[in-house]
Amino acid sequence: DQLMKGISSSIKVIPDPESELAISARQGSFVVKDNKAKKEKAKQAKDRSSLQGTALGNVLGIEGKTEKFEEPNKEDEDLREAPIDTLSIQQQRRQLPAFAVRKDLIRAISENQVTIVIGETGSGKTTQLAQFLYEEGFASSLDKNGQKKIIGCTQPRRVAAMSVAKRVSEEMNCKLSEEVGYVIRFEDRTSPQKTVIKYLTEGILLREILIDPNLEDYSCIIMDEAHERTLSTDVLLGLFRKLLMRRKDLKLIVTSATMNADRFTRFFGDAPQFTIPGRTFPVDIMFSKTSCQDYVESAVKQVLTIHLQNSSKSKLNDGDILVFMTGQEDIEVTCELLKEKLEMLDDPPPLDIYPIYSTLPADLQKKIFSKKNEFRRKVVVATNIAETSLTVDGIKYVVDTGLIKMKVYNPKLGMETLQVVPVSVANAQQRSGRAGRTGPGVAYRLYTERATKNDQMHLQPIPEIQRTNLSNVMLLLKSLKVDNLQRFPFLDPPPQDLLSRSLYDLWVIGALDNFGNLTSLGSDMSNFPMEPTLSKLIILSCKNEFHCSEEILTVVSMLSIPSVFFRPKERAQEADSIREKYVIAESDHLTLLNVYNQWQQQLVKSNSSYKKLSIWCDKNFLQIKSLIRAREIRNQLVLIMKKYKLPISKSRSDDDVRKCLCAAYFQQLARLIKNNISGNSQAEYVNLRNKVMTMYLHPTSALNGGTDMAPNFVVYHELLLTTKEYMSCVTAVDPLWLLQYGYYFYGVDEKTQANLKNLIDFELIDKKDFEERLNFDKLRYQDVISS
Ligand code: CDP
Ligand code: MG
């Protein structure tokens, strides 16, 4: 009772009838599936299941309680699925909102070079548009003259490209990777002869432009989900402005949620908008009366209120709940708290609790898609992943914390911070809409209506180009000979400090010369589809001095996947102690190498049996999917190495690998200022780039060697601000190496001079020599800034 009181006072139950969402939902044309037939069948199944113990049970000759129950349940589920299964895949296509407007849509696209297509999630933009164009003869496979015209459809996310290509190949009744295929980084599932519809990530299209600036193989390009405004979306949009002038016959279709659509129209000189009428149900929006103190607690209370108020013993589950949380930790706490509170209740109605976030192992992720059980309610506690990229059917209630964990790059500190920030109004609408996919729903927002109307929430999300490290994209644009970045047509230009920082970073690592032009190292680097430091690392490892490309390829592959270590909260200690087994004390990079090599050994031992490997991974708290992917990435990198005739050689010692890491990462350097003498405080480092920032080894780092001395100098892969400034993926280096490989960098920045004095005090550098270099480098620095 107390629980309920607390909840009802914090939520003001007023649907907001004038909200845009409610209005657009009312205006949408609804197609309500024939639920009657479905219900009837379910009822029959239920009736039958009560007979199971007798007639059917006897016929089947089943004895024993459990089996008797297993059989009817299966039947029950099959019947529930039946109405959907009997719809042929073609019938399903015809029911999509896009199908109803197909003719007009094709006409709009035929008559214009650029068309902006707007439509609700699920209207068929991603799966149907490309097929329509293909069916209308916009594409042809490779002909005798070596010409082809294919339809490309870009996706912001890898997973989407893969799953959509699979779905479309099924709809077209062909084998995936033949007529329909996909390309994501390190994986090409297309056929050069046959493929006519190609799903690809935006990053891949950018790389294709690098190889063929006119994209001659394409007749149409669909930029899907452009409203997400990823860094690559924005760069592609800018490139298309010129490309479309060179290729008058190329069609560009930009699909977008309502948000951002007008910006795209203006950007392409008044390109027409085509709106696919939606199929959504109205969603009532409830705001909190006061802003909540603890969003985890409020969300838990809200979920329980929904669950208890809408359940009774006799009633079926009336709909599932989707909670938007910020990240893994919050999700785990929410799930635990929910379980706890439920246990405190006397015989509560059944509630299944599922967490979902991107680093959750795939088999656990799949669980949320398990078949609907009419008697049990499901609550899915998710990150932003459930906002657009993942759809759980049967959601009727949405609980929205209104928060999102966002990576923001700080160019002054050269550091990414992971911050919990309010979502934009547009995101909030999208989240609420998830409750209205299969029937009318309710969205409970754990923030006030006021918050959406004053400055607390942006109207639109901040595009990635304004909050991320741009080095990678700058290198790409430089390779595309876009010399004057000031004149590049950005939809929203990146802030100046972000731009200069990225150029400066590229200069520091030697990819740009003093005039801002690509150096030969820079152009070699652009052959690798990865961030500049990693490409440089690979190129350096081929030099005879380091001679360790065999190892570096593995390290780079392991850095290109999400963490291989699985650390569920309730078994964190166990996971940590197992991880110890793999630790190489002076380097996280070498630790990753070690994990990979042991996995390789298992691969041989187990004769590549997925089952055996999966058992081994579970036992060792390693993520099998990540390891498989690391292996695929490595194989792809080997192909690139061969293409450019780069040697793959085994190192002579671990030190050589660390030297190579030092040479590639010298600009990301820290020096120990306070050791963890007692063993219970954390060692403190100072950033040698800006001299002032205190940083710590990430708690999971191999270098947290208990009572051992923390190393004096370390290079790091990334800086991340969470609760503290953490260096992630760290390797101890010898200061002598730093002077050898990074001297000029530490002569450039005046702030770091004082730190260099330490090195001079170590007598590791000749003072006069250093000052001469410093003057020279200052000159270089000025050159770069001015050009
Ligand atoms: O792009 P948009 O959100 O407009 O819709 P879509 O992705 O083309 O999806 C249209 C329909 O295709 C969905 O409602 C799903 O029923 C189905 N679909 C699917 O079954 N499997 C996929 N991987 C993608 C879509
Ligand atoms: Mg889509």
Describe the overall structure.
Its main location: nucleus. Belongs to the DEAD box helicase family. DEAH subfamily. PRP16 sub-subfamily. This protein is of the alpha/beta class and 787 residues long. 44% of the residues lie in helices and 16% in strands. The protein is built from 32 helices and 22 strands. The strands form 3 sheets. It has an 8-stranded mixed sheet with strand order 5-4-6-3-7-8-2-9, sandwiched between helices. Strands 1-10-17-14-11-13-12 form a 7-stranded mixed sheet, sandwiched between helices. Strands 18-19-20-22-21 form a 5-stranded mixed β-barrel. Strand 21 and strand 22 form a beta hairpin. Helix 23 packs across helix 27. The longest helix is centred in the first third of the chain and has 22 residues. It is globular, with a radius of gyration of 29 Å. Cytidine-5'-diphosphate binds next to helix 9 and helix 10.
